Amino acid sequence: MKVRAVVVNWNGGDGNLACLGSLLKAGMQASDIHFVDNGSVDGSVAKCADAFPGIVVDVTGENLGFAAAANRGIRAALQAGADAVWLMNNDATVEIGCLSALTEAVIHAPKCGLYGPRIYANQSADKLWCCGVTLGSGPNLGTLRGHGQAGRGRYETDENVAALTGCGLLILRSVFERVGVLDEAFFVYVEDAEFCSRARKAGFVPRYIAKAVMEHAGAGSTGGGYGRARKYLTAHGTVLYLKRHGTLRQWLCWALLDVLAWPLVFVLALLRGRTGGAWGKLCGTLCALRGQAVNRRILGKRS
Length: 303
What we know:
This protein is an alpha/beta fold and 303 residues long. It folds into two domains: 3-216, Spore Coat Polysaccharide Biosynthesis Protein SpsA, Chain A; 228-300, no CATH class. The protein is 39% helix and 20% strand. It has helices at 15-25, 44-51, 66-79, 98-108, 173-179, 191-201, 228-245, 248-260, 262-272, 275-289; strands spanning 3-9, 33-37, 56-59, 84-89, 92-94, 113-122, 127-130, 133-135, 142-144, 159-160, 170-172, 205-216. The strands form two sheets. Strands 1, 2, 3, 4, 5, 6, 7, 10, 11 and 12 form a ten-stranded mixed sheet that branches. The longest helix is centred in the last third of the chain and has 18 residues, at 228-245. It is globular, with a radius of gyration of 19 Å.
């Protein structure tokens, strides 16, 4: 199986070097790695090109968002003859056996089409980040299974899941041929859940692979936590997802927990001195409900 990786960068700094280095150690050839830069200004493109001269570099010249940049890499990988595309966050590293475990899973469950690894937030501390995603009707559209929990004794067998995060996601060519690429209306966040839902409707089944191990710092581009940019983008993406795939139950729970409860959320945020996240969530929700694209200026607002 010919696998080509796609790494999207936006001012990722030296984290890119660790990511790319781990891909090579896992068995990738430099010429099979598509490094798509989203208008970085930190010199990271030159550093990566110098350190890994064989990688395929695509400089967009501006921040197109993760989905649009990833699609450039995906299309290039498919055009180069890839049987599968491996999406990779630039702040993540993979274990040596990660790729081989994913490709072996394709042999055992070829009809699934999408395969995701066991992701640690801190492997040395046995702290998980994600072992597949559940899609429900709670305050968050998607829940990262195992997030923040100890890994020992949890999620140690392969299984089908509702969705997979785009970090370390291996996607067969047949999936793209059936459902298309990522939806570029999602600037960043939730595009992976939307893609998995589209794939499920087409007959594919996202599958979690326990022996494929990697580590991911998380939310490197938008500041993470309860920052304004992250809350804006996740709120915007959630509404877009509901418009495309939402059930009546999901819409009702969203209206109750995200809309009607927002004043309470704001008061709590005010008491904690972090109102930026609450305002970001409201703005993202309203923009998506109005059919407006992401306001890219929000990316500069981390607090």
